[in-house]
Amino acid sequence: MPNPHSTAQDVHAVDFDKALIARLAGNGPRYTSYPTADRFSNGFDQTQFLSETQRRFSAEQVRPLSLYVHIPFCDTVCFYCGCNKVITANRSHAARYLDYLEREIALQAPLFTGRARVEQLHFGGGTPTYFTDQQLTRLMASLREHFAFTPATEGEFSIEIDPRKVGSETVAQLAALGFNRMSVGVQDFDPVVQHAVNRIQSEAETVAVIEEARSCGFKSVSIDLIYGLPRQTLGGFAATLDKVIAIRPDRLSVYNYAHMPHLFKTQRQINAAELPSPDTRLDLLSLAIRRLTNAGYVYIGMDHFALPDDELAHAQRKGTLQRNFQGYSTRDDIDLLALGVSAISKIGGSYSQNVRDLGSYYAQLDAGELPLLRGIALSRDDLLRRSVIQQLMCHFHLDLQQLSTEWQIDARSYFAEEWQALSMLADDGLLVLDDALLQVLPRGRLLIRNIAMQFDRHLRESKVMSQAPPLQRYSQTI
Fold it and tell me: Could you report how far apart the first and last alpha carbons of the chain are, in Å?
């Protein structure tokens, strides 16, 4: 029986079994939260949010805090994108949005004054650098005025970058503002694929931004790739991987393209006939895993790779890795306050999402209200299952004895209904299971979403009662 305290080699081992993946992979949540966002309710209001925040951030201690700021604007549309975005060349929209962001900051900050210290910051979008250097400076000044920040040498302050829109002056300015981590969108360097998805981006401009970031002292650079895009081939993607490996980013995300034009209108501009076959998609993934691991990267989980000395790999080995709405995080169980349209916060035992459109966002702030749309207060069962799913997604094992002690339950009895499905996955070689331990094996790690789904009570109940949303609302698990 494997030891729950796996070695570094065990933690990062992954076995690509194409036949097994083809047989078992289906649709399912990514578990950036549990319960998933489709379970949030419009009944969760400002009163509940304030109550949970005041309970979590009492005057008794200063707690670490993560801030996320959503900047939805883009100059041009990438056809594959499923993010909440506004495509416009009218820069006055950015100026107005910044005004309202500052209103939301001013409303939120008193809940955390003297009680929170910002250890993580992430600007996402959209394209965060749609804001001018002056607007980004103003936004950072507002955040620092209202929140206490840990020193830059200790904090993780990151921003998503579109290399097509950023010059060396902006990179230097971001460093001066305290940003020390950068996520760079690439997706694929193959010009045929770039034309098919309306994102023309050269290797030279990408390398230039990354080199400037390194010269300005950025501690970590991450590159995003996507497999399964239209007109993608093994040869073309292999060339992209060679170029990316030569750049040597600290981290890599290799996402599976989720073609859901019924949910994302921009994807309707993609010719579905040009998408790779399911068999080819798996070959693309296998190629990426093989090339990256041969180049010295380790598999973190759920599309993510990192160099062995990167903080993500260290956090996984130490047991402090966390999963949130930005992917994987190095800080264990940190509260997240999200600002801006559609942004989702995680405060204690609750999730809350802001309204999704600019008109509603502005109207609620004009009324002096937090721009909340929906949310959920977690039950004890939700909190327990969230803990289990987090442990599996981040560390690939579950110590059932420790779980029983921590939650004052008999884990084997509590999850009796899940045991049968888990036993079937064990028969397929995805995991080892007994009364003391659930250990995900290397051939099960690519299918970790399938394993986590067994603990999703809300998903099981919706299936039993034939309630929406069906699994088609979710992306493929691999």
Answer: 27
